[in-house]
Amino acid sequence: MMKLTDVRNRKSTTEVAALVNERMAHFNQQGLYGAEVYDALSTDTELPMQLETADIEGISGDTPVALKFRRHRGQPPPFLKLSGKRVVYPRFEYFQWLKDRYVSRTSKKAAEDYTRAAAE
User: Fold this and answer.
1) d(Cα 88, Cα 110) in Å, to the nearest integer?
2) Are 24 and 41 in contact (CB under 8 A)?
3) For the segment 14-35, what is each residue's pLDDT rounded down to a tens digit?
């Protein structure tokens, strides 16, 4: 298994996104689903401590331009500005932000709507 803990020795961003998908599948196999997966990813030492903007795009599809607008508006996800143009996103805070955005469809209303739609 590939281990990407050192930012300086990182592979391409597509490999980071692939590693995140691999780790999500791993946690699913362990019985974690939904928001619990994001908790596990936030502390997963197999993932880099800091995610680049391109990593975020590969993971969640948020474009660099969209992330830049969010930063200028003071919106999440939290980030670190390491130099004039280099911005990184701490792993823990990023996956906690994704967890907060997770929408569960297990509510009673959703279950009732699903049951009603299936009966029609």
Assistant:
1) 37
2) yes
3) 799 999 999 999 999 999 999 9
Of residues 83, 48, 80, the one with CA closest to residue 67: 80
pLDDT tens-digit map of 73-82: 999 999 999 9
90: how many CB neighbours lie within 10 A of its CB?
16
Task: Name the H helices within the chain.
Answer: 13-29, 35-42, 53-60, 64-73, 91-101, 108-119
CA 22, CA 73: separation in Å to the nearest integer? 33
Contact assessment for residue 96 and residue 35, using Cβ atoms and an 8 Å cutoff? no
Residue with tokens 């994001």: 38
- Among the listed residues 30, 102, 60, the one whose alpha carbon sits nearest the alpha carbon of residue 51: 60
